[in-house]
């Protein structure tokens, strides 16, 4: 529910009157939605440069004018971290971009990240009042990215204010979006926060799962540095549940623990030939490239550079994998997905970019077998052709086999991107946690507290595979729940 009193306080009547005089609502609705400048598809399909180039100041100022400054802005309801969207956009319209960036940081730990990878079209933008006027929604995501980038590039980065330290130490397990969001909110409230990361880099899925042509590591690093300046401490190469136990954390004086260890266990289809060399998970493939630099000549991390690459799945991770394969020299890079394009969970923008980069889409196909050569390396895949039946529990039409309709295609690399399961280490070693049959940690949905009173959990370890922004929303909810518990 929107805190309307807070909004009224932040957006005075005098401010709104100035904006109303500058442009009438009818004129605002008539302004066409901005288009994001992009790199040329042929160039970018061989480059790791970021595809989306960001808005110019002139584009941002004009797009900001499209916001109608609704008295009851439903867009905020669509934002899992509750960014005050009208306030930050109106600051851009007034050419006070620094103030817009500060507004974003009031509730979002990672605005430059969210502006790039959040599915705004399914969240804040899907609630925009423009849609009721047969107009395209305000480009909230583009403007969020613009404000965060403008501040960073200006060289004057604001650090959110933090309350005086209250002497209470909190541990965070995992440095992905849920952990970082939680850490930011707890630091603002005056807690001493230490984040433990199993890998050698901070960022979790933001670093190992998302390619730099979509989210540059340098952008993530700046957001992390802001947290450091807020007092958050980071410890890498430390596996909680192995290097440190739950009991160790309590012995070190932590009075609260937030588990945000993610869902890093890849799912497979368990079909014949899946154990052949050259069949691997998207997790392994993307981690080798994104985190370990397998795409760079100066690193020693091996990765097979397939010429005929098939990626199984239709989500954002599948798009990231197939577009990565294209950049690593694949002559034929294809998506194999058992439903139609309409049912694909991937963002529309990612599908568009993939098509522009020459990716082949084999929709309504499902692999049923892989065959190998004499050396045990995959050389072909057998695909079952599908058709759509009645909707299943997800609301999407269920794919049904067409009897006797198969197709065999040559491949030399198969990347399986059909989802992930929670990392079992923490659930298995934190004795007393209530665990679901899917391996997720069961929490109180209001506070995200577990059956262990000092332990809270959020993100993919609770949801299974989900989005960056939903994980961040969990981080904020858990922080609020833990802070309330200390008060009570």
In short:
It is built from 20 helices and 15 strands.
3D architecture notes:
- The protein has 488 residues and is an alpha/beta fold.
- The protein is built from 20 helices and 15 strands.
- Strands 3-2-1-4-15 form a 5-stranded parallel β-sheet, with helices on one face. It has a 5-stranded parallel β-sheet with strand order 6-13-7-8-9. The protein has a 3-stranded antiparallel β-sheet with strand order 10-11-12, with no helix packed on it.
- Strand 10 and strand 11 (378-391) form a beta hairpin.
Quaternary form? single chain
Q: How many H/I helical runs?
A: 20
Report the end-to-end length measured between terminal Cα atoms. Answer: 23 Å
Across the major sheet, the strand order is: 3-2-1-4-15
Query: What's the CATH topology label of the largest domain?
Result: FAD/NAD(P)-binding domain
Count of DSSP strands? 15
> Rounded to an integer, what's the Rg over CA atoms?
23 Å
> What's the CATH architecture name of the largest domain?
3-Layer(bba) Sandwich
CATH superfamily of the largest domain: FAD/NAD(P)-binding domain
Classified by CATH, the class of the largest domain is: Alpha Beta
As a percent range, the share of helical residues equals: 25-40%
Note the main attributes of this structure.
FAD/NAD(P)-binding domain; alpha/beta; Fumarate Reductase Iron-sulfur Protein, Chain B, domain 2; 5-stranded parallel β-sheet; 488 residues; 36% helix
